[in-house]
Amino acid sequence: MNFKIFILSLGRAVGLFALSRHLTASRVRILAYHGVWLGEGHFGNFLYMDARKFQRRMALLSKWGYPVIPLTQAIESHEKGKLPKTATVITIDDGWYSTYVHMLPTLLAYRYPATIYLTTYYCLNQVPVIDVALEYCFHQIDPVRCPEIYISDFGFGPLATGTDQEKAIALAAAVETMAGLHGDAMRQLFLQSVCKEADVDYEKLSTERWFHLMNADEVQDAAEKGITVELHTHHHRITHNDQDCLEQELALNSGCIEDVTGRIPVHFCYPSGRFSQKIWPNLNDAGVISATTTELGLVDGQSAIYALPRLLDGQNISELEFEAEMSGFMELIRQGLSFLGFPRRERH
User: Fold this and answer.
1) Strand, coil or helix: what is 68?
2) Per the CB 3.0–4.6 Å rule, which of 132, 153, 275, 338 could disulfide with 270?
C-alpha cells in the first residue's frame, strides 16, 4: 500500500470523508470523462476508460447519493443557492464513438443527464483522429522488433524507438510530419505507414472505430435522448500556427452542432484544458455562458465562470481516490496545500 492510499484509507476510516462531504456540500462536483477504450488490452488513462469501470462509477454515484443534475441547472442555480447538496454534473469531452456505444446506455440506465463537449471536424470527417492514433502506434512499438522507425515515402526517420524517451521524440517528429501533409487522405496514408512499422492493424482500428468520433446521426440520436451537446472547438484548438483562431473555431463548432441538434450551444470546454483570461472577452462576445478546464477542484462561489474546475476521472484512478474526490476530502487537502504555497495541479 503506497502512502497516498494509506492516508486516504485512514481518512475514510476516521470519518474525514463524511466530514468533508458536509463541509463542501454547497460546492458543485463537475466530473470529466473522455471515451471508452475499444481495442485490445488498454490504452490511455484519462483519455480512455474501461466500460465496466465507467458503469461502476455511475453505480457508485447512485449508491453514495450524489444528485446528478444538468450543467445548465448547475450554472444557473449555483449563484442563487438553490442546488441540492453535493450537486454533481457529468461532462464528457470530444464525443468519441465509444462514448455513444458504451457511456450513453449507462447514462440512460441511471437517468443521468450529461453534457458532451463535441469537437466537430472528426465528427463530420469520419476517419481516425490521427494525433491520438499516432500516439497509440508509438505506444505499441516493440523496441526489440522495431528499434527504429523509417518511412522513406514521407521522408520520416530513421528515428530510434528503443526507450520511452526515444519514442516520445519520434512521436513528436511524426506529429510534425503529419501537420505538414495536405488533406486527410495523405495524413491517413502516413498513419497507415506508421501502423505497419508498429505492427498495428490499421484496418481493424479503422473499421472498429477505436479512434473515431460519433458521426452526425449518432450525435443527433444522443441529443434526442437527452444528452446536451456543447462547444469544444471545431479542430480541437484555439490557436493555429501561433495565431489566435478561437473566433473561427467557435463559429464552425457552433454551426455544426446547431445543424445536427437543432439548438445553439452555449457552454464551452477548453481543448486540452489550455486557457487564458485574455480570451474571456471573446467567449463573452460569442455568447458562451460557462467554460470548464482540467484544473482539479470543486465549483464554489469564488470560481470564475470561464475557468470552472473539474474532477477528471481516469482508468488509473482507484475507487478510494474517486470517493476522496467526490467527498471533497481531496479538495480540502488541495486548499490546505495552496495556503502553504503549493500550486494546484491539472490532469491531462
Assistant:
1) strand
2) 275
pLDDT tens, 169-204?
A: 999 999 999 999 999 999 999 999 999 999 999 999
CB 32 within 8 A of CB 311: yes
| Cα 187-192-194 angle, rounded to 5 deg | 95
Helix pair 3-13, 319-327: axis angle to 10 deg: 50
Place of cell 476530502: 329
Helices (H), 79-215: 97-98, 104-110, 121-124, 130-140, 164-179, 183-198, 202-207
Integer Cα distance of 68 and 33 in angstroms? 15
Cα 182 from Cα 52, distance rounded (Å) = 39
- Residue in this structure with the C-alpha cell 501533409, named with its chain if needed: 181
C-alpha cell belonging to residue 163: 526507450
At 337, is the pLDDT very low, low, confident or very high (cuts 50, 70, 90)? confident
**In Å, how far are 2, 140, 297, 303, 333 from 328, measured between CA atoms?**
21, 37, 9, 15, 9
Can you name the residues that pair with 49 across neighbouring β-strands? 36
Instruction: Quick: pLDDT tens for 96-106.
Output: 999 999 999 99
Q: Cα dihedral sign for 313, 316, 321, 322?
A: positive
* Contact (Cβ atoms closer than 8 angstroms) between residue 115 and residue 227: yes
β strands within the chain, DSSP E: 29-33, 35-36, 48-49, 88-94, 115-118, 148-151, 156-160, 228-231, 239-240, 243-244, 267-269, 290-296, 308-312
Predicted local confidence at residue 344, as pLDDT: 60
